[in-house]
Amino acid sequence: MFSKPGGGTRVGETLSELPLSLRSDPNEPGLESAPFVVAHTSGDDSSVFDNGLPLTATDWMRDGRLEHLVTTRHSAGLTGLPVAPAIGNLILDGGGGRSLEEMVAGTGRGLLLTCLWYIREVDPATLLLTGLTRDGVYLVENGEVTGEVNNFRFNESPVDLLSRATEAGRSEKTLPREWGDWFTRAAMPALRVPDFNMSSVSRGV
Fold it and tell me: Which residue of 7, 54, 123, 181 is most buried, as measured by CB atoms within 10 A?
């Protein structure tokens, strides 16, 4: 997803036309996390040999432009990218600042999704994910929530969603449902995404 054909990375490319910034900061008020690397195992995005490495504020994406990729000291040596270990929080901001209620009021017809769950990777090359909606999917008509609808299975790439998003609302603290047992520090805005790919109806609860 973030590699270029023939070699290199997509760092420096524009991922979203919206002025969105995805960042991590161990000192973010209310979302503080460990100020140094805590790696229990080594893998593609972490290394036990980096344990104790100081962490600082990092922009992963700034104004829609890819700035950094998660990089250990080892992978930095292989790629030439700066060292940028994973940090224990994520903040996406830079939207217009409208509340969710205001975004709903400005919607002619659409679906309001409150939660995505059971997310699994389908294609690592495109970061295509599949999962289910959960805990309420609502029909919005002429700026009002007019009813509850069934759950759906979806197939989408979050990177592709960023390129198609037409509005981002006010960032608020939220709990990542899928990672709720270990990743609990996040702030995200509501996103308006035309043609979100609902692949089928989910009959489960």
Answer: 123
Distance between CA atoms of 137 and 178, rounded to whole angstroms? 17
Q: What is the DSSP letter of 82?
A: P
pLDDT tens, position by position, 115-135: 999 999 999 889 999 999 998
> If you count them, how many residues does the chain have?
205
pLDDT digits (tens, 9 = 90+) for 64-83: 999 999 999 999 999 999 99
pLDDT tens digits, residue range 156-182? 999 999 999 999 999 999 988 887 777
Find out whether 169 and 92 touch, Cβ atoms under 8 Å.
no
Global pTM value: 0.90
Yes or no: say if 101 and 172 are a contact pair by the CB < 8 Å rule: no
Measured from the Cβ of residue 29, the count of other Cβ atoms closer than 10 Å reads 6
Q: Look at residues 173, 104, 91, 168 and name the one whose alpha carbon lies nearest to residue 142.
A: 104
The answer to the question of residue 130 being in a domain is yes
Q: How does DSSP classify residue 203?
A: -
Instruction: For the chain, give the percent of residues with pLDDT over 90.
Output: 79
Pick the closest to residue 127 from 74, 82, 66, 175 (CA basis): 66
Q: Which domain holds residue 116?
A: 100-169+190-202
| Whether residue 70 sits in one domain with residue 109 | no
Last residue of a domain, one of 39, 60, 94: 94
